[in-house]
Write a structure and sequence with these properties.
By secondary structure, the chain is of the alpha+beta class. It folds into three domains: 118 residues, Hypothetical Protein, Haloacid Dehalogenase-like Hydrolase, Chain: A, domain 2; 131 residues, 3-Layer(aba) Sandwich (Trna Endonuclease, Chain: A, domain 1); 111 residues, no CATH class. 40% of the residues lie in helices and 26% in strands. The strands form four sheets. The chain has a six-stranded antiparallel beta barrel. Helix 10 links the parallel strand 8 and strand 9. The longest helix is centred in the C-terminal third of the chain and has 23 residues.
C-alpha cells in the first residue's frame, strides 16, 4: 500500500503537469545539451534534474524550467567559458532558452522571454507543486503561503490527493489555535482528524471526516450519519468537510444536531483566508523593529544566539540570518548584513553586523521561508536554495579562491 508521502508525490506529479508546449521545450533543451555534450565527448558525471526536486526551495517568477548538474567536463566547459560552450548557447537560443550557472556544478535553463504566457503557466505549475510540498512538510504553515494559495483558489482543493486534503484541514485548524491529530489514513474508523480547542469546561473535542470528492459525487446520508454516531460515542462535535456537495437529505439530517457541521470548499477557503491573515499579522509583529531590537541586543550580549544562523555560499562570503518565527517544521528567516575582514578580500573572516541594519534596508522584502529540520539535537533550515545552521559565535573563514 502506498505511503502518505508517496500519495502526495503522486498528486504533485500526476495531477498538475505543465502544458505540452513547455514539456516540449524542456525535452528539446535536454536533447540539445546531451547531443552537444556527446558530440564533444563531454557527457560524463552529468545529468538533468527538476529544479524543484534539486533545490527544494520556493519558486519565484521567472523560475528555471530545468537544472543541469555536472561534476565532469560539461561543468568545466561552462565554468571556464571554453569555445564549445558558445556552441551550446547558440543552439539553446534557437528554442528561446538560455542557460546560466548557479554554482560550480549546477546551471539553470530559463526562457528568454520571462514575460511570456508560457513562463507564467510554468510559474503557476511550480507554485502548485511547492504548495503541495508545504502541506507535506508543515503541521502549521508559519508563513501563511499555503492558506493564501487556497483562499484564492478553492477549486484547486480537489487537485490535492485525499491524504493531502486531510493534512491541509489539520494544518489550517492548527494555525487557528486548535490542537490537532491526523489519523492513520486507512482503518481510521471514519475519523480523519481529531481536534481540540480550549473551553471553560476543558478541551472540547471535534471529530473530522474529510472527503476530497468531485462535484458529481455528492455526500450521502449514511456518511454523515456515521460521523454523528462516532461523535456521540466520543461525546464530541462532528465536522464533515468535502470538496463536493451534500444530498438534501444529508443536510436535513445534520440540521437537527447543532454539534454536527457540514462544510465545503468555500468554507475551507474562508478558513484559509482567516489563517493567512493571522499569519500575516504574526509575521508583521515579528518583523517590527520594536521586537527585533531586543533580540539583537540579546545576541550582542551573549555573543551568539539560537536565532542567529548562517550558511556558506558559493562564489560569495558566508551570510547570516535571524530566525523571526518558527514551528517544528518551518521558519521565517531575515537576512542581516555581514562584514568581511579584510573588506573585498579573497581570503579572510566574516562576522554578522548586529547594529540593527538590514539587508537592502527593507525588512519585508528580504524575509523568506525555510523548512526546519532537527536531527540528533541539531537544528537546520533549508531555504532559498541554501542550508542554514546555528552560528557558534566564532568568525567564519572564507576563501574565494578555493
Amino acid at each position: 500500500m502506498a505511503t502518505s508521502s508517496e500519495r502526495i508525490k503522486d498528486a504533485r506529479n500526476s495531477r498538475a503537469k505543465p502544458d505540452q508546449e513547455l514539456e516540449d521545450v524542456v525535452a528539446q533543451a535536454k536533447a540539445i545539451t546531451e547531443s552537444w555534450a556527446e558530440r564533444h565527448d563531454l557527457w560524463g558525471d552529468s545529468g538533468h534534474k527538476d529544479p524543484l526536486d534539486h533545490y527544494d526551495t520556493e519558486p519565484g517568477e521567472g523560475s528555471s524550467i530545468l537544472t543541469l548538474w555536472s561534476e565532469g567536463m560539461v561543468g568545466r566547459c561552462l565554468n571556464e567559458g571554453m569555445d564549445e560552450a558558445e556552441e551550446l548557447y547558440e543552439a539553446l537560443e534557437s528554442i528561446r532558452v538560455f542557460i546560466e550557472l548557479d554554482d560550480h556544478v549546477t546551471a539553470g535553463y530559463y526562457l528568454i522571454d520571462q514575460e511570456s504566457d508560457l513562463q507564467k503557466r510554468f510559474d503557476e505549475w511550480a507554485r502548485w507543486r511547492w504548495t503541495c510540498r508545504l502541506i507535506e512538510a508543515d503541521t502549521a504553515d508559519v508563513s501563511g503561503d499555503i492558506y493564501e494559495y487556497f483562499s484564492k483558489r478553492p477549486d484547486d482543493l480537489y487537485r490535492l490527493s485525499p491524504r493531502a486534503f486531510e493534512e491541509l484541514i489539520s494544518s489550517v485548524f492548527t494555525a487557528r489555535g486548535w490542537r490537532t491529530q491526523i489519523g492513520p489514513g486507512s482503518a481510521d474508523e471514519g475519523v480523519d482528524v481529531r481536534m481540540w480547542i480550549q473551553s471553560p469546561l476543558g478541551d472540547a473535542l471535534t471529530l473530522v471526516q474529510a472527503k476530497r470528492y468531485a462535484k458529481h459525487r455528492p455526500i450521502e446520508l449514511d456518511a454523515v450519519a456515521a460521523l454523528e454516531a462516532h461523535s456521540l460515542r466520543e461525546k464530541a462535535s462532528g465536522l464533515f468537510v468535502t470538496t463536493s456537495r451534500y444530498r438534501n437529505v444529508a443536510k436535513r439530517f445534520a440540521s437537527r444536531n447543532k454539534d454536527l457541521i457540514l462544510a465545503d470548499s468555500s468554507d475551507v477557503a474562508s478558513w484559509c483566508e482567516e489563517a493567512s491573515q493571522e499569519a500575516m499579522k504574526a509575521n508583521a509583529r515579528a518583523l517590527a523593529m520594536a521586537s527585533l531590537g531586543p533580540l539583537l541586543d540579546e545576541i550582542r550580549a551573549r555573543g551568539t544566539h539560537p536565532a542567529l544562523v548562517f550558511c556558506w555560499k558559493s562564489f560569495s562570503y558566508p551570510c547570516f540570518c535571524i530566525v523571526l518565527r518558527e514551528t517544528p517544521t518551518g521558519a521565517l528567516l531575515l537576512p542581516i548584513p555581514s562584514q568581511a575582514t579584510p573588506p573585498d578580500g579573497l581570503v579572510g573572516y566574516v562576522l554578522p553586523v548586529l547594529d540593527g541594519s538590514l539587508v537592502d534596508r527593507t525588512p519585508g522584502n528580504g524575509v523568506f521561508r525555510a523548512i526546519r529540520r532537527e536531527s540528533e539535537g541539531r537544528v537546520s533550515y533549508w531555504g532559498n536554495g541554501e542550508l542554514y545552521g546555528r552560528w557558534d559565535g566564532k568568525p567564519l573563514r572564507f576563501d574565494l579562491c578555493d
